[in-house]
From TrEMBL:
<keyword id="KW-0472">Membrane</keyword>
<feature type="transmembrane region" description="Helical">
    <location>
        <begin position="289"/>
        <end position="314"/>
    </location>
</feature>
<feature type="transmembrane region" description="Helical">
    <location>
        <begin position="143"/>
        <end position="175"/>
    </location>
</feature>
<feature type="transmembrane region" description="Helical">
    <location>
        <begin position="326"/>
        <end position="346"/>
    </location>
</feature>
<dbReference type="Pfam" id="PF02417">
    <property type="entry name" value="Chromate_transp"/>
</dbReference>
<feature type="transmembrane region" description="Helical">
    <location>
        <begin position="77"/>
        <end position="99"/>
    </location>
</feature>
<feature type="transmembrane region" description="Helical">
    <location>
        <begin position="111"/>
        <end position="131"/>
    </location>
</feature>
<feature type="transmembrane region" description="Helical">
    <location>
        <begin position="358"/>
        <end position="390"/>
    </location>
</feature>
<dbReference type="InterPro" id="IPR003370">
    <property type="entry name" value="Chromate_transpt"/>
</dbReference>
<feature type="transmembrane region" description="Helical">
    <location>
        <begin position="220"/>
        <end position="243"/>
    </location>
</feature>
<dbReference type="GO" id="GO:0015109">
    <property type="term" value="F:chromate transmembrane transporter activity"/>
</dbReference>
<protein>
    <submittedName>
        <fullName>Chromate transporter</fullName>
    </submittedName>
</protein>
<keyword id="KW-1133">Transmembrane helix</keyword>
<keyword id="KW-0812">Transmembrane</keyword>
<dbReference type="InterPro" id="IPR014047">
    <property type="entry name" value="Chr_Tranpt_l_chain"/>
</dbReference>
<keyword id="KW-1003">Cell membrane</keyword>
<dbReference type="GO" id="GO:0005886">
    <property type="term" value="C:plasma membrane"/>
</dbReference>
């Protein structure tokens, strides 16, 4: 009974955070700290800082992985699952409803949809500026980012993106092998190493077996699961990087139009919770509510397997300077991939005339200098898109 009460408490707290956590992953981590460390005192400052460091080290949605980790430390593996469901479910439901309206009423040509596409330009540009300060502070990492930008622009495919990430990891491994970090901490997590090892094995098995199984069977659903799982597994540097990965998977195959894709990305900025719930919108547009649930489960599964798999081994990983160097190289490449995605498909399909650029400039100033919340930017972008339609 006590276990059930703990799980219920985790669900209620995480659901409240899922309903109110606007502003992206950095803001989410602030909300989590205030709630889990400050109010609830479920964990110490040291344990929370260690968990955040792990989530930044791993690919996947950082805030979701921290939420899962908090749930695990509070209520075991079931606690992690409960925390994930509570934090993710509100935005999943909202985006699935939005997707249903998109397909039912065929509003893809509406002016406010074009405005949401311009919002996507502003959000990604803002993300690039914020991330580049930390991820490319020196000339070596700026060159890695430039390499990633040129490669992904000239050779646009998922395999190029994977190759760029691997090459950047090798370069980082070589260049930053003597990198030191004096801020190391240690913590213990209530998961058996055997269970964690099984999660890591399953992560890699699915990553390599799903594409092969997709080719062998030709199954549509296997292809969908593979596309979303691979996107979730290869996202280094935050949820915004999932945009080019998913765009390359879904738009060329004809599963979703570019207009619907970018409109959904803009709408995702208006809802609380993790950016990865964009998958719920995409899956619903493609295959209804069942498709939305499958896409959501597939894109979040890698993050779940990685956080559960890495928790007990975190101290060993973070104290290995060579591994840190590889991650530094990958994070620098992420900036290049983001800039490439900003140009195409986002910029080329959204900024079509001077009025579009003017609206984008207004929204950017509102976001960067006036520091207005994302939902205000989304509403203004939608209204501005309607006005542009009358010009």
């Amino acid at each position: 009974m006590n276990k059930l009460r703990i799980l219920l408490e985790i669900f209620l707290v995480s659901t409240r955070l899922g309903l109110t956590s606007f502003g992206g992953p950095t803001a989410h981590l602030g909300y989590f700290h205030a709630e889990y460390v400050g109010r609830k005192k479920w964990m110490s400052e040291k344990s929370y800082a260690d968990l955040v460091a792990l989530s930044q080290f791993l690919p996947g949605p950082a805030s979701s992985q921290v939420g899962i980790g908090v749930g695990v430390m509070r209520g075991g593996v079931l606690g992690g699952l409960t925390s994930f469901i509570g934090f993710t479910l509100p935005s999943v439901i909202v985006l699935m409803i939005f997707a249903s309206l998109m397909t039912t009423f065929d509003i893809s040509e509406a002016g406010w949809i074009h405005g949401l596409k311009i919002v996507a330009v502003v959000i990604v540009l803002h993300a690039i500026l914020g991330m580049s300060k930390n991820l490319t502070p020196d000339i070596e990492r700026k060159v890695i980012a430039l390499f990633a930008l040129v490669a992904t622009l000239l050779f646009q495919s998922v395999f190029t993106q994977i190759g760029v990430i691997l090459i950047a990891a090798v370069i980082g491994f070589i260049l930053f092998k003597d990198y030191k970090d004096d801020g190391q901490k240690s913590a213990s997590f209530p998961i058996k190493k055997s269970f964690s090892a099984a999660c890591l094995v399953l992560f890699f098995v699915l990553l390599f077996v799903l594409p092969a199984f997709r080719e062998l069977t030709g199954s549509y659903w296997v292809a969908v699961i593979d596309s979303f799982y691979r996107a979730g597994a290869l996202v280094f540097g935050g949820g915004h990087v999932v945009l080019p990965l998913l765009e390359q998977e879904l738009v060329p195959t004809g599963w979703i139009t570019e207009e619907a894709f970018l409109a959904g990305y803009g709408a995702t900025q208006a809802v609380p919770g993790p950016l990865f719930t964009f998958a719920a919108y995409l899956g619903t547009v493609m295959n209804g509510w069942f498709g939305g649930l499958i896409a959501t489960a597939a894109i979040f599964l890698p993050a779940f397997l990685l956080i559960l798999g890495a928790l007990p081994f975190w101290d060993m990983l973070r104290n290995n300077e060579k591994i840190k160097g590889a991650v530094m190289g990958v994070n620098a490449a992420v900036i290049g991939i983001l800039i490439s995605a900003l140009y195409t498909p986002i910029w080329t399909s959204s900024i079509l005339k001077p009025a579009d650029f003017a609206l984008a400039a207004i929204l950017f100033v509102m976001l960067l200098y006036f520091k207005l919340p994302p939902w205000v930017i989304v509403v203004t972008g939608g209204a501005g898109g309607m006005l542009i339609g009358f010009l």
